[in-house]
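TASK: fixed-backbone design
INPUT:
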């Protein structure tokens, strides 16, 4: 179903992003142009049929278009990972994992920061058994050698670019990273960007949502998701790149719990330890990278495990985790998956009414990029 349903989306990845790929030139293809072909190629999986674009579709802000389940299915039918595939938009701005001046971890790609660059990140799903399932780098390179764009790859990287498996694989990930650094992934074309530039106005609901978002005594969202241009005038990225444990509950309906023991030896007892798995520090147990909020309204489900199916539900949780939702259908929230490191200071007991939450959600909708990239 995944393969047949997303053929049009793969085509849209190529056609819709053409304007971002340095345009049409008379010279050899660029790595970014080759990267667009690789990104949309369903032959780069085992079995063939799942491309990068299947979990990161351009039509839906480069996230998984199949949002009816909490995590993404890989190339093998029925195999699901433990985490919600995040949007790939604005990923080029994520710095390598490091400690900041205060000693806190920040940066790194994936929810747990284990990849230090787009190049590192691009290679891991290709070889992961729950994702694209290639047994080794040689299998990926062999598929590219057979591809219709193999000559374009050689034109971009050199005549012998596909001769050596290890070197060729590095070039493949470099091309994918080059594509992810194009404007298609970071257009800064939202209503809020126009508002900051004085070219648009927010609605009263959006303005109130912004005020709550930035109010340290109410929402205080901007403390982790900075909402104003940087000192150099650069557009806000709506993330500090830091890590937090929001106290998200275990998602009991996750299809990952049903995976064979080879992929999930803990079965239904699985606990996702987040950043701790990367840095080996128990103090980071259950913490996950703070994502950008750009295009957040277009990228459900939410949370590292996809626990929240819509944005209203997620914001309600952040506001009322410790006090209980005002929605009687929700009531008291379930216990956190990892209780020891939950952030009790910034979230869980915010003085926001249901109407306030509606306005915050309205403001977050203003962070969605336009479908068309404008010059």
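OUTPUT:
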């Amino acid at each position: 179903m995944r393969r047949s349903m997303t053929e049009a989306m793969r085509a849209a990845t190529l056609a819709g992003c053409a304007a971002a790929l340095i345009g049409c030139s008379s010279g050899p293809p660029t790595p970014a142009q080759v990267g667009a072909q690789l990104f949309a190629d369903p032959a780069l999986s085992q079995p063939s049929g799942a491309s990068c674009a299947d979990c990161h579709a351009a039509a839906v802000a480069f996230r998984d278009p199949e949002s009816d389940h909490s995590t993404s299915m890989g190339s093998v039918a029925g195999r699901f990972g433990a985490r919600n595939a995040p949007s790939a938009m604005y990923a080029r701005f994520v710095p390598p994992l490091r400690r900041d001046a205060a000693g806190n971890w920040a940066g790194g790609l994936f929810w747990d920061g284990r990849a230090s660059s787009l190049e590192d990140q691009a290679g891991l799903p290709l070889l992961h058994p729950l994702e694209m399932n290639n047994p080794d780098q040689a299998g990926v390179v062999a598929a590219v050698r057979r591809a219709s764009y193999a000559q374009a790859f050689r034109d971009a990287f050199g005549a012998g670019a596909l001769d050596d498996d290890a070197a060729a694989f590095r070039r493949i990930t470099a091309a994918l990273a080059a594509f992810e650094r194009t404007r298609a992934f970071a257009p800064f074309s939202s209503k809020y960007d126009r508002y900051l530039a004085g070219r648009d106005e927010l609605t009263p609901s959006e303005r109130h949502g912004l005020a709550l978002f930035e109010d340290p005594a109410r929402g205080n969202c901007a403390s982790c998701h900075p909402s104003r241009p940087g000192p150099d005038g650069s557009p806000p990225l709506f993330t500090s790149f830091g890590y937090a444990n929001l106290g998200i509950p275990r998602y009991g309906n996750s299809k990952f719990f049903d995976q064979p023991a080879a992929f999930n030896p803990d079965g239904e007892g699985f606990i996702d330890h987040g950043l701790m798995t990367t840095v080996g520090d128990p103090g980071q147990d259950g913490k996950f990278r703070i994502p950008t909020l750009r295009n957040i309204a277009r990228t459900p489900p939410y949370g590292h495990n996809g626990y929240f199916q819509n944005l209203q539900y997620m914001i309600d949780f952040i506001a009322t985790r410790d006090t209980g939702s005002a929605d009687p259908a929700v009531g008291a929230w379930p216990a956190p998956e990892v209780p020891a490191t939950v952030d009790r200071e910034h979230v869980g007991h915010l003085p926001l009414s249901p109407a306030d939450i509606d306005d915050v959600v309205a403001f977050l909708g203003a962070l969605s990029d336009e479908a068309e990239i404008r010059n």
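COMMENT: Residues 2-185 form a domain with the Cytochrome Bc1 Complex; Chain D, domain 2 fold (CATH 1.10.760.10).
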